[in-house]
Amino acid sequence: MAQKIRRKSAKSSLPLLLLTIPGMIYLLINNYIPMAGVVIAFKSQNFAKGIFGGDWIGLDNFAFLFKTKDAWIMTRNTILYNLAFIVIGTICAIIVALLMTELTKKFLSKFYQNALIIPSVISTVVISYIVFSFLNSDSGLINKTILSLFNLPEISWYSEAKYWPVIIVLVFIWKTAGYSSIVYMASIAGMDKSIYEAAKIDGAGKFRQIKDITLPLLKPTIIIMTLLAVGRIMNSDFGLFYQVPMNSGALYNTTQTIDTFVYRAMMQLNDTGMAAASGLYQSLVGFVLVMVANGIVRKIDSDNSLF
């Protein structure tokens, strides 16, 4: 009897398993097969001997990440920016999701959803020129319209590094908040509406419902999304930190991250071993941070940990 049940379950699951084949092939080609290239991080580059034929040099390829004078700056920027993105980005995505779920008219809901998603599909190069149209010293909207309206002095935005932490975060939120809110909107849509009806009968207002019902029920989703983001904390959006500041050398102190540093170094050295070493370093640190963060969540609330 049990064997028949298992066979029946396997047959019913077969169509769903077939649907996963394209995704599994994608992961195999883009994620698992390239893992063989990890060995390049420990070898010297020698194209005459082939990709894997270089001499074994141990950890020498990792040294350039830590011996440079910019090692502290790029590591600091990468971690702090990503922490800001996780905290501020999560808050903004939840706020957007809560506002969108309050729209009752279907036309307005679809319109705003599409409007919020559009920034996430725009090329970073295009976004960099949109930002440039605001910040350009000669004809930018902020200098020529906003600052002049209040009789404030013009600012050379691409030479003043102190303004760019705020600019980078604002551009990131504008680009990603709408797309990130989709996950939270889906979670809210799946919540039991009878709980809200009972809260209304008890006299709970909208803010009380959000505080006591929506946010507690969103906690598992928030934790999972945060843990996934922690795994990428040593990586950065290359376009955001390279294209948007227009690769201005005056801004390196606040826009230099590990990814942009490696790109600029590789443009000069053209050493794939060093590039592989930096990628492996970022992946290992991200893996360790996910394990640590998941362990903390498991001790506090084991039901919401990833594993």
Keywords, please?
307 residues, mainly alpha, 14 helices, globular, transmembrane, transport, transmembrane helix, cell membrane
Structure description:
By secondary structure, the protein is mostly helical. 70% of the residues lie in helices and 0% in strands. It contains 14 helices and no strands. Residues 75-293 form the ABC transmembrane type-1 domain. It holds the Pfam family BPD_transp_1. Keywords: Cell membrane, Membrane, Transmembrane, Transmembrane helix, Transport. It comes from Paenibacillus turicensis.
Fraction in beta strands = under 5%
* Order of H and E elements: HHHHHHHHHHHHHH
Q: How many strands, what sense, and barrel or not for the largest sheet? A: none
Total strands: the figure is 0
How many H/I helical runs? Answer: 14
What is the arithmetic mean of pLDDT?
86
Radius of gyration: 24 Å
Shape: globular
Stretches where pLDDT falls below 50 for ≥5 residues? none
Q: Determine the N-to-C terminus distance.
A: 32 Å
Structural class: mainly alpha
Helix content: over 70%
Keywords: Cell membrane, Membrane, Transmembrane, Transmembrane helix, Transport
Subcellular location: Cell membrane
InterPro entries: ABC_transporter_permease, MetI-like, MetI-like_sf
Protein name: Aldouronate transport system permease protein
